[in-house]
Specification:
Strand order of the largest sheet: 2-1-5-4-3
Helix content: 40-55%
Order of helices and strands: HEEHHHEEEHHEHHEE
Shape: elongated
Radius of gyration: 30 Å
Structural class: alpha+beta
Largest sheet: 5 strands, antiparallel
C-alpha cells in the first residue's frame, strides 16, 4: 500500500539519520577520551570496576580484562585500595572527591596517582555509580620528595643535616627513656682536615668527607644513625655525630 510504503521508507530514513548521528557523537566522544591523559574508570559503591578506559595500559595495576568485574581490593595492593575506597566513600557522601594520592609499584618502578571521583546522577531503583579519573603525578611527586630530601640532608655527604639529626636524636632519647634503656651519642671530628683542602684542593676534601660518610654508614646497625652536624666553612672543618 503506497501510504504504508511511504511510512516504512520514512521510518528507515529516520533510523539511518539517527544511526549516523549516534556514530558521529560516538566518534567525537572517543576523540575527547583519547585527549584525556588520565586513567578513567566507572565503578560501583563496592569498588567494582564496571568500565576501564585508558590509552596508557602500562599504568594499570592489572590488564583491563583482569580488572573488569573485580573489586579494587582484588586488583590493587591494600594501601592503594584503601585510598580508592576512601575517595569513593567521600564522593558518595559529598558528590565529589579530589586530591587523594596513592603509590603503586609497577614493573618499571613506583608511580604516584591523584584521584578525582564524581558520583553519577541518581537513577531510581539503581545503585550509585562513580566516575573516577586517576592522574599520574609521578614527576611532581619525585620532585617534591627530592626537595624534602634536600631540606633534611647534607648535599655533600647525603647524611642527615644538623636540624634533622637533632630531631632524630631527640626522638631516640625519648624512646630510650620510655623503654628504660641506655643511649649512646658519639661525636667525631676530623683532625687536620684543613691541610687536606690547602694541599690537595677542596675537591679532594669533599671526596674525603664522602668516603668517611660512606664508611660510617656501612658500619651502622639498623637502629643507628649518623649525621653531619657542623663545621665552620671558613675554617674548612667538618664534624659528624
Amino acid at each position: 500500500h503506497p501510504r504504508l510504503l511511504m511510512r516504512r521508507i520514512s521510518n528507515l530514513m529516520g533510523r539511518d539519520i539517527l544511526r549516523k548521528e549516534l556514530e558521529r557523537r560516538e566518534s567525537e566522544w572517543r576523540v575527547t577520551l583519547n585527549a584525556i591523559p588520565d586513567l578513567m574508570f566507572k565503578m560501583d559503591i563496592e569498588g567494582t570496576y564496571l568500565h576501564v578506559f585508558t590509552h596508557r595500559p602500562q599504568l594499570l595495576a592489572r590488564s583491563r580484562r583482569q580488572m573488569l568485574g573485580r573489586t579494587v581490593a582484588e586488583v590493587m595492593p591494600p594501601g592503594a585500595a584503601a585510598v580508592v575506597m576512601q575517595a569513593i566513600a567521600e564522593a558518595d557522601a559529598q558528590g565529589t572527591s579530589y586530591g587523594r594520592e596513592f603509590e603503586l609499584q609497577l614493573p618499571d618502578g613506583p608511580h604516584w596517582f591523584e584521584l578525582s571521583v564524581a558520583r553519577s546522577l541518581p537513577v531510581p531503583e539503581q545503585p550509585a555509580h562513580f566516575v573516577m579519573l586517576s592522574r599520574e603525578v609521578t614527576a611532581r611527586k619525585l620532585s617534591d620528595l627530592q626537595l624534602q630530601h634536600l631540606a633534611l640532608h647534607d648535599p655533600l655527604t647525603d647524611l642527615p643535616n644538623r636540624a634533622f639529626f637533632m630531631k632524630m636524636a631527640e626522638k631516640a632519647m625519648v624512646g630510650a627513656q620510655r623503654a628504660g634503656c641506655r643511649l649512646a651519642l658519639g661525636f667525631l671530628d676530623l683532625d687536620h682536615f684543613k691541610p687536606v683542602n690547602d694541599l690537595y684542593g677542596h675537591a679532594m676534601g669533599d671526596r674525603l668527607l664522602q668516603q668517611v660518610a660512606q664508611r660510617m654508614q656501612a658500619l651502622l646497625r639498623r637502629t643507628d644513625s649518623v649525621g653531619r652536624v657542623g663545621g665552620r666553612s671558613e675554617e674548612h672543618t667538618s664534624e659528624l655525630q
